[in-house]
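Internal QA ticket QA-208
Title: Verify multi-chain structure generation after dependency bump
Assignee: T.L.

Test input:
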Amino acid sequence: MEHVTEQDIDHYASLSQFQLNDDTRKRFTKEINQILDFLQILQKVDTESIAPTRHGTDRVNVFRDDVIQDPLPHAEVFKNSPLDDGVFFLVPRIIEGEDNS
Amino acid sequence: MKTPWYEKTAKEIRDAVHQGEASALDIVNSFIEHADAVDGTVGAYTQRWSETARTAAQRIDEKIRKGLPAGALAGVPVALKESICTSEGKTTGASKMLADYRSPFDATAVTRLQQADAVFLGKVNMDEIGLGSSTETSALQRTTNPWAPDRVPGGSSGGSAAAVASGTCALALGTDTGSSIRQPASFCGCIGFKPTYGRISRLGIIGIASSLDHVGPLARTVEDTALALNVLCGEDKGDPTSSDRPVPDFTRSLGRDIRGLRIGVPKEYLASDLDAEVRQYVEKALDQFRNAGAEIVSISLPCTGYDAAAYTVISTAEMSAGLARLDGVRYGARHPEAKSVPDVYVMSKSAGLGTEVQRRIILGTYFLSGKNRQDYFVKAQQVRTVVKKDFQNAFEQCDIIAGATTATAAFPFGSKSDNPLEMYACDQFTVAANLASHPALSIPCGKTAAGLPIGLHLQARSYDEETLLGAAFYYEQHRGFEMGFPSIL
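Actual output:
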């Protein structure tokens, strides 16, 4: 039976960009293990040579005409931005080096 | 005494406006005043747009006065789920992360309703980002079940169902990834309709799991549901997964003779852990269909049980990828103390998203990591194929599949919050329709001794919404009771 440890939960939390406190880590470990127990039922289904269903739609290759459309104006694009200069979204410096500011 | 407008159906309202018997403004004011009186208790509305609603109503009245054609939902007051993008007001998904988000555009479903001259009264509550079955995970407020203030309204579209049931709108829009329209409709005693995947555009919906997400209406009558579907359904160039099949006039399926209709009852549904009162009313509904000349057929859906497991894997895996966009970079609440790019992600997401959202994203990340991808995610997608096949086989023996929408009526606040598996079990009869893409609805079939609504769940073949509506309409006309309005109001 597959189970996860608190260390595993920390690992998957960090992959998902979450920082968990001790209580939440404990709680998630317990709850996710309960869910994994429940999911064992999937192993009972014979899926040998059965193709996966990846989507709900029955459409394939939906194309549109290659025409230029008006983009959203900058003001609209940036109206929800936490930080921007009107042309770019701003985030803290990524590459260390000479300060050009 | 004259029936107040807020107790009338969308059809009655639309007809009165078209025929000039009532002004859209009077109608909208009746709903606004009723919401002023009762929504303090219910808590369905997160945003009230009373002034813009009055202005919109006056524009419709002006059209009528000038003899211009008015739309198919002229003057009909509508509430919109917080996860549906509107250029008016905010679109928060009931999450702290999107507390100040203002959409630059309207969802296609919203545009279609507006073009039909519906009037938006505001936005309504939901579980955060749509993850939950009780509306308790909302970061905004608590919404109560209008039939019992100590009970949840269901979820995630709990605000939509509570608003329809309490008469603070005539129609509401919800979204349904596993049960989120039908389960709250069942708990609140209204009709919730999930159409075939792709019938209604998803453009402008805060998506959770793109292969399972649906938009649909909640209403008080089957006829109102059909009127809403007529407006909402149809191809949208902005959503390449929307269906390009022709859309029939759904109102024409109402009043169909149901003699000879084959209604399949999966033996697995009745064998499950159904509450005694729920079972009693579902069986009573089946008797009514039988007495009307429908043929009740015993069928088998071997996928019952593992469909919910496949759903858990697929939905969380899809949301772990899709919800990575809620990171505070281009929009959303960026943590003010974030000093580095990793901080922006980790601090903003950890502070902005609630426990249920975090748990499901972490779980979905687990399913997509390393060899788990094959063992869980691809396995669940293969099981999804088996589920579809099971339903194809079942629909060779019957035209409709019937059962309970949920195993119990609405539960008390807090009773399932600490047990995600119990909360997920709320979806046990409904998720298969999302996995297999076919249409399904919940319609009230009775009330428990304690006065809580019970929902009958009907499912039909993909794109056969008409048979579904025809059967539901017949049942509604002959079920022998009126849902009415909750007495607390």
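Spot checks passed. Chain A has a mean pLDDT of 92.
Status: verified.
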